[in-house]
Write a structure and sequence with these properties.
3 strands, 3-stranded mixed β-sheet, about 250 residues, mainly alpha
Amino acid sequence: MERFPIGMILLMIVAVLIYFGLAQRILDRMRLTDKAALVIVAVIFLGSFINIPIPFANIEGSINVGGAIVPIGVAIYVLSRAGTSKEVVRTLFAIAATAGTVYFFNSYVLAADPWQTGRDIIDPLYIYPIVAGTIAYIVGRSRRGAFIAATLGVLILDIVNFSVLLATGIRGTVAVGGGGAFDVIVLSGLFAVLLAEVVGETLERIQGGPRTEGRSKELIKGLQDIESPAPARKPTEKDYDPLVMGGEEKDEK
């Protein structure tokens, strides 16, 4: 039975959420505007239909625009807007950790075809995003770092497979960022961001705001600028004082 294009469906759902402003907080934390995010989603969606052939003597290869080229470009752009060099280094380390974990699962845990063993508890299509998203957030720690590490960590697996075939001379077919990998990349990025948002928001509420210790002034200011507005309060007599409100008292006659 042919799979539903879950990556496409999720992209359409994300586009709707962005259009109606329901993803504003997450986009603010990633330093993306609504318009930029919609353009990125549209390019990924349309690019998923474009495969650029990269044939070699023993490999029938291709690279998908929406599943490989665009995510790499978005990752570079988002990483360039990171608050500190420390976050950049941490994100690069998270990419390596995520790629290594995904490779381990692919080579050893799911080495046999999981659909044929009769022991699979969860569809392998979701195992990779869960693993990649979790590792990406734990190591990357920020929403930006988690998104970049999750998407590139999975994409690197395709690049490694391509490199192995190229080095060994074994004939094979590799679609970098295409086929099932496209769905996994989209799922991984979204899961990592949602995990970072849920955990990060919970921790911030517990500690009464974003952590400021050890962070640069620029990053702290950026976090404060996008904080939610202060909760409403009951007006006091001072609020109605003409001088406090900026008004002028009427002259008595």
